[in-house]
């Protein structure tokens, strides 16, 4: 920038006000022009400040006055006009410069703003990349944690399976051990029983032989006495014949004591025709007067026996009800004895049908309420089985009294669970998965996949109208027992469950429980092959035998009480 421009810029930047006088050469005529010039200068400065791009055209110079003062003033005006234009040009340049600077600053600001925006976008992109990387890292960590959890779960599951397998193996080993101990105990009991039977047979044989020898001795003695008596009688007969001079065709005379007394059996009202001749009695002398015969006692005709009334046929319900009434009258001692004998017989024969024979000692030890534990530890499993069977019998009796409780599949399962509590509960117990071969069960079984349907079908028939139309608890119970054993729902003790369910039906119908005797085992198994009438007959005979047995016991008790 030149010194002139700097000077004009400096002048333009000075504040407006009174300007100092530059000398006495200034005239008053120049003041208005200066003032006017100042106003014009201000106006041009304001115009140039408003728009630096528009330039006003230079005013046209008026014609110079002819006077010197006028020329001087005109020259001064021209000078001032030039200065003013120069100042305006300076101001315009300054304004343009300021505008350029402003534009430059604006451009700089925009550049800085763009830079900041780019920085912000770059920072945002960096943050997004960092967030994406962190998200990926979190996802990888989550996947790693999930994989570790899955591995831990698989390991825990594997350990649980191994633990369950070990527990199952331990249970199986324990079960095998118990079974082996039970088999050993059964074998020992069987051997002891066989030894006891052999001893009894030997004693019985010895007693029979001694009895036979005694009988032979007595027979020989009687034969010798008979021969001796016959000899005496024969000698007496020969002596009498010699005396009487008689000749008879035989010499054998019977002992009068051997002739039965037949007095009062003759139909003749008078005496004998003629005089009888007795062997060994001399006849009366001729002319001797014989004493008159004694008069025969008057025989009154015996009245004919009264016509026997035909016996009234008593039903099983009435007969069993009368037995219960007699038991109540007999007292608590006999009733308690009857209950204990019934339970012991029930458990013994019902288990014997399944191939398990309990001894009297085992039954007594298990059913004794005062015994805490058996003296022999090998008897503990047997006692537990007997007690569970007794508990199932108590449940059967309770169901027999509570007739409103429906008989359904859950009752069948509960009976089995009470006999085998280690198989689970009513909701978790499982039917058999294979076809077992019991040593005497040779009838056809239901396939394992048909068991649930067949058991449900049997219970639906029991609760349906057909069973109610039969009106015979014995036939209904025998058929349910027969059908359930043909299904054979459980791997073991299905026969016990079927017979317990049959006795529930019998008790609800007013019948006593049917205990099939163990001696009927072969007949019972043969009937399961397809002979329902034989099963019904067996159940009927079992009930009849039980009633006859308790009636005999009551008769003996009442006879002792009467005497």
Task: Please give a handful of descriptors for the protein shown.
Fic-like fold; mainly alpha; rod-shaped; 0% strand; single chain; 563 residues
The total of beta strands comes to: 0
Order of helices and strands: HHHHHHHHHHHHHH
CATH architecture of the domain at 352-562: Orthogonal Bundle
CATH fold call of the domain at 352-562 = Fic-like fold
Q: Portion of residues in helices?
A: 55-70%
CATH superfamily of the domain at 352-562: Fido-like domain
Give the amount of beta strand, in percent: under 5%
> Helices and strands: which structural class?
mainly alpha
- Low-confidence runs: 9-42, 44-54, 246-312
Q: How many helical stretches? A: 14
Q: What shape does the CA trace take?
A: rod-shaped
Major beta-sheet overview: none
Terminus-to-terminus distance:
165 Å
Under the CATH scheme, which class of the domain at 352-562? Answer: Mainly Alpha
Describe this structure in words.
- The chain has 563 residues and is an all-alpha fold.
- It has a domain at 352-562: Fic-like fold (Orthogonal Bundle).
- The chain is 66% helix and 0% strand.
- The chain has helices at residues 3-13, 30-50, 68-244, 316-330, 332-353, 360-367, 380-401, 409-419, 451-462, 465-470, 473-487, 494-508, 521-527, 532-562.
- The relative contact order is 0.04.
- Residues 9-42, 44-54 and 246-312 have low confidence and may be disordered.
């Amino acid at each position: 920038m030149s010194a002139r421009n700097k000077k004009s810029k400096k002048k333009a930047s000075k504040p407006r006000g009174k300007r100092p006088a530059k000398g006495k050469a200034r005239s008053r005529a120049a003041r208005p022009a200066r003032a006017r010039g100042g106003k014009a200068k201000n106006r041009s400065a304001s115009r140039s400040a408003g728009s630096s791009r528009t330039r006003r055209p230079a005013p046209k110079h008026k014609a110079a006055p002819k006077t010197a003062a006028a020329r001087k003033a005109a020259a001064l005006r021209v000078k001032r006009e030039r200065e003013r234009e120069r100042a305006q040009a300076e101001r315009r340049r300054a304004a343009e410069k300021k505008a350029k600077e402003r534009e430059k600053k604006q451009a700089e600001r925009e550049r800085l703003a763009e830079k900041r925006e780019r920085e912000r976008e770059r920072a945002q992109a960096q943050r997004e990349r960092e967030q994406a990387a962190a998200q990926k890292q979190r996802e990888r960590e989550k996947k790693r944690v999930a994989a570790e959890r899955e591995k831990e779960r698989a390991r825990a599951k594997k350990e649980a399976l191994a633990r369950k397998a070990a527990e199952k193996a331990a249970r199986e080993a324990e079960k095998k051990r118990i079974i082996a101990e039970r088999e050993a105990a059964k074998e020992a009991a069987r051997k002891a029983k066989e030894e006891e039977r052999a001893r009894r047979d030997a004693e019985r044989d010895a007693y029979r032989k001694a009895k036979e020898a005694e009988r032979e001795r007595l027979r020989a003695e009687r034969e010798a006495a008979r021969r001796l008596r016959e000899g005496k009688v024969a000698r007496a007969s020969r002596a009498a014949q010699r005396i009487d001079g008689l000749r008879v065709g035989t010499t054998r005379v019977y002992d009068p004591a051997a002739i039965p007394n037949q007095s009062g059996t003759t139909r003749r009202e008078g005496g004998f025709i003629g005089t009888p001749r007795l062997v060994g009695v001399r006849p009366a002398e001729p002319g001797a007067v014989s004493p008159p015969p004694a008069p025969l006692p008057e025989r009154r005709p015996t009245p004919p026996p009264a016509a026997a009334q035909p016996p009234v046929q008593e039903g099983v319900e009435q007969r069993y009800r009368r037995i219960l009434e007699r038991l109540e009258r007999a007292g608590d001692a006999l009733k308690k004895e009857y209950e204990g004998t019934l339970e012991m017989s029930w458990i013994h024969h019902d288990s014997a049908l399944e191939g398990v024979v309990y001894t009297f000692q085992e039954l007594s030890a298990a059913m004794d309420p005062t015994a805490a534990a058996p003296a022999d530890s090998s008897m503990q499993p047997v006692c537990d089985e007997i007690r569970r069977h007794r508990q199932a019998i108590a449940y059967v009796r309770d169901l027999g009294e509570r007739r409103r409780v429906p008989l359904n599949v859950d009752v069948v399962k509960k009976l089995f669970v009470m006999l085998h509590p280690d198989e689970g509960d009513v909701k978790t117990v499982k039917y058999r998965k294979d076809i077992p071969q019991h040593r005497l069960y040779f009838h056809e079984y239901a396939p394992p996949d048909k068991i649930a349907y067949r058991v449900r079908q049997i219970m639906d028939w029991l609760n349906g109208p057909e069973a109610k139309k039969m009106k015979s608890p014995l036939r209904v119970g025998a058929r349910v027992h027969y059908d359930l054993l043909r299904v054979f729902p459980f791997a073991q003790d299905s026969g016990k469950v079927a017979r317990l369910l049959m006795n529930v039906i019998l008790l609800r119908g007013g019948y006593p429980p049917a205990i099939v005797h163990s001696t009927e085992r072969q007949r019972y198994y043969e009937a399961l092959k397809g002979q329902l009438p034989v099963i019904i007959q067996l159940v009927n005979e079992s009930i009849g035998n039980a009633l006859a047995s308790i009636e005999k016991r009551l008769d003996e008790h009442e006879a002792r009480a009467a005497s």
